[in-house]
User: Fold this.
Amino acid sequence: MSANAKNDCSVVEEELDEEPRSIILSMIVQLRKDMDLSRITFPTFVLEPRSFTERVTDFMSHPDFLIQASKCEDPVQRFIGVVKYYMSGWHIHPKGVKKPYNPVLGEFFRSRCVFDDGTSAFFVSEQVSHHPPITAMFYHSPEHHIAIEGDLRPKSRFFGNSVGMLLEGYAKVHFGQWNENYQVTYPNMYARGILFGKMVLELGETSTVTCLESDLAFDVEFKTKGLIWGTYNQIAGKIRRISTKEVLYEISGNWQTQIFILDVRERRRVGSLEPSILFDSAKEHVVPQLVACAAEQEPNESRNLWKHVTKAIGENNLDNATTYKSAIEEEQREDAKRREAAKDRFVPRFFQLETDGNYHPKLKNISEDPVKAKEDIVNWIFTKPDGQLQDFGRAEDDPVVLAAGLAATKSLPRH
Assistant:
């Protein structure tokens, strides 16, 4: 593979015209290196037409890998399956180098997915804090006894010719059948070339997947390209025993395209061994998130809240997009003033801050009975203020959403 981005079709890049780049330059002259950008308003042409509360679902694009892993008797093979799932969540992206909408306080996104065998999973994310921004999430498949929860705390930083999103927070994958917890951390994201050159999206730094119950850990470095040498999107990682530090497998490849796995012990035994493919993004199916139509969504549900901004971006009407976006942001500021005047503390709807300093779902003690668990989860996530369940009888085929070109990110569900 060439070291040059133009010969690498897997590189996420964008060539900015003179006017957009001049707007960015006018913003940057007001900034200083390492400055926190969480309070900076970005121009609409850099926006991906969906909220960060929805973008979190990218991590759940291949849940079938978790289902397959949960059925493995061998704890090492289960762990490899979780690693495969973790590494599969990074290749999905919008066209160009874009950032999602900053969610407003109390905004939420909820969805469900149905697997080929008729089983299902349910998801909800909520913006539980605005300053600092914190997005809490919950995902559960009752029939497979698989749960994911966590909170993401993105921090944006200005680094000269690049902007970085530092993804702090936690995530935990739970296999109920095995009583195993897989703790996950995230790499950082960087938009390079904001002042000169092509804008390129990169992932960087080291992330981990750890399961204390099986005594296994995965350390992976997302490599950034050097100024002269190197290639984009490369990763290098190892699966090891925590107690002995013995390396069992090596992971390598490109997080956008193909990822490979090598059995270190087998290579040692036979003397030479070629790695096998662990994940190939071109051959794997993305499981769509099913979302109720706009008429069934509450005012602060992500797609409904941002629908006019999304429509304007889809029509390439950036003036209208800016107007609608500014109105949402102004309403958020007014809400904050009203709460402050009334000494009214914001209380999240789906999550609560607990003694460990993290946000956890308010729904506790989920039944091991799949039927009961499904009933409780559906009622908790999808009950509207009027006491009725959200109606999924119609597809989310609102032209407002379709016009945004979300199909460039992932296929819209139809049911």
Q: What stands out?
A: The first helix runs from residue 18 to 28. The radius of gyration is 22 Å. The domain at 5-408 is CATH 2.40.160.120 (Porin). The chain has one domain: 5-408.
